[in-house]
Design goal:
Methane Monooxygenase Hydroxylase, Chain G, domain 1; mainly alpha
């Protein structure tokens, strides 16, 4: 047993290093988009601290299962952060859509002002970039949800291997795993709602553009 402790501690140190290195690497860099910060420094520090606490704190939970549980916790954190990033991006697009609508009205009142044309080009460019970013975030969320689902399944299926049947339902760590399983449905619902908001924004933008074209032709 004494020989196993350094090896287990080494695995915890490796996992802590892995979380710090991978979690801090923007996922969207591989997609050639502006980077997303998946974890704040506080979040990464908290997860790394949790690894050490799980090792140092006496617990009936086997170290191997603690690592499995930590994988579930990290997956939940990734999905949560990505959903926040998606919501923030949609909020930015909402403001951009309002600015776009007001600008089109101003252009119809004063079509002779060139500055409006420059602003319109800039806004359209920002809108295009924002939609591309939303597409990347949504794709990453789907991947993260798949990872969370598989991690949760592993934790649930491995539980009988590490816990006696009489203690399975009493373990706090297992209850956390079961809560994560229920959170998957909540995350999926939130993703659908955010995608619907994006669809409505795109429809509003397209409608404003169409009406603007008709109004400008009338002025001619």
């Amino acid at each position: 047993k004494k020989q196993m402790i350094p090896r287990l501690y080494g695995s915890f140190r490796f996992l802590r290093h892995y979380i710090r290195s991978v979690a801090c690497v923007p996922v969207l860099t591989a997609l050639r988009r502006p980077p997303l910060v998946l974890f704040s420094a506080t979040a990464v520090s908290s997860i790394a601290s949790d690894v050490v606490d799980r090792f140092n704190t006496p617990s009936p939970v086997p170290p191997t299962f603690s690592i499995i549980q930590l994988q579930v916790d990290a997956s939940v954190a990734v999905v949560s952060q990505l959903l926040l990033d998606y919501e923030f991006q949609l909020a930015s697009l909402t403001k951009l859509n309002e600015t776009h609508c007001n600008l089109l009205k101003n252009m119809e009142r004063r079509p002779d002002l060139d500055k409006y044309q420059d602003e319109l080009v800039s806004i359209r460019s920002s809108w295009k970039d924002g939609l591309a970013r939303c597409a990347d975030i949504a794709y990453c969320i789907e991947l993260a949800l798949s990872t969370l689902q598989k991690s949760t399944e592993v934790a649930i299926l491995c539980a009988p291997l590490f816990f006696p049947s009489s203690a399975t339902d009493k373990s706090e760590d297992l209850s956390v795993t079961h809560r994560a399983a229920h959170m998957i449905n909540s995350f999926e619902t939130t993703l659908v709602e955010l995608q619907q908001r994006q669809t409505h924004l795109v429809a509003s933008w397209t409608k404003d553009e169409s009406e603007h074209i008709k109004n400008m032709k009338t002025l001619e």
